[in-house]
Design a protein that fits this description.
9 helices, Arc Repressor Mutant, subunit A, 4-stranded antiparallel beta sheet, single chain, 241 residues, 5-stranded parallel beta sheet
């Protein structure tokens, strides 16, 4: 990322998967200067590991990599995820483009390419995939607090008619807190440490995630109305502060 102007916490997060170290650095730097958060890895195995622990808005994926290639990785990912994929490859033949699209990628850009075109393609994909969904039906289950409506089944948070962008972890946190509204949920439970270990490090991570979520919910995050710290080092969602 750019060392002079780091993107904000809620900037779209791009996962770049390419075994070419120089290209990873160039793409990371360019996207960072243009307002994106970027994580770059060299293989499909590394990408799978990052996807298991971080939320991304789009994947920029190379085809020819050691180990699992981009086509196979995209096909496997599509079994469990609909995250947008922009495929980058030196293989520009029509048959390869068709194979990529059949694997479930959203767009295809052949190398060499202009960085500006990469930026435009990413922006176009995100505009399509992040379109505001229809308003909830009157009888759709939801949790209201202040000006917000959280729809657990959709994982959507709305403030009036506007959709508040959430990461996957933020959706999980709100689902857990919303299921026991007004009751404290431990940091351990929110971090998932009880299900798979991780202890203090994961609990410190949940504190950071809670603070980021507070900035989306609270006019004054230092004096929270809705997402409050509870006794016993936990958190609770207050629907009627």
């Amino acid at each position: 990322m750019s060392a002079t102007a780091a993107p904000p916490d809620d900037a779209p997060h791009v996962l770049v998967v390419d075994d070419d170290r120089r290209l990873r650095q160039l793409v990371t730097s360019y996207l960072g200067r243009n307002g994106y958060r970027v994580t770059a890895v060299a293989s499909a195995a590394e990408a799978s590991s990052r996807l298991a622990s971080l939320a991304f808005e789009i994947i920029v994926l190379d085809v020819m990599m050691p180990g699992e290639n981009g086509f196979d990785f995209a096909e496997r990912l599509r079994e469990t995820s609909d995250i947008p994929i922009l495929m980058l490859t030196a293989r520009g033949e029509a048959s390869d483009r068709v194979r990529g699209l059949e694997a479930g990628v959203d767009d295809y850009l052949a190398k060499p390419y202009e960085p500006k075109e990469l930026l435009l393609r990413i922006g176009s994909i995100l505009r399509r995939t992040r379109a505001i969904p229809p308003a909830p039906a009157a009888d759709e289950p939801g949790l209201r607090f202040g000006p917000f409506l959280f729809l657990p089944e959709r994982g959507e948070l709305r403030r009036g008619d506007a959709l508040v962008r959430l990461t996957e972890r933020e959706r999980e946190i709100l689902r857990l807190l919303g299921a026991t509204s007004g009751v404290s949920v431990s940091r351990e439970a929110l971090s998932g440490a009880g299900a798979g270990g991780g202890g203090g490090a994961q609990e410190r991570t949940i504190d950071v995630q809670i603070n980021r979520l507070r900035r989306k919910l609270e006019d004054d995050p230092a004096n929270p109305l809705y997402l409050q710290t509870a006794r016993g080092a936990g958190y609770k969602l207050v629907t009627d502060p």
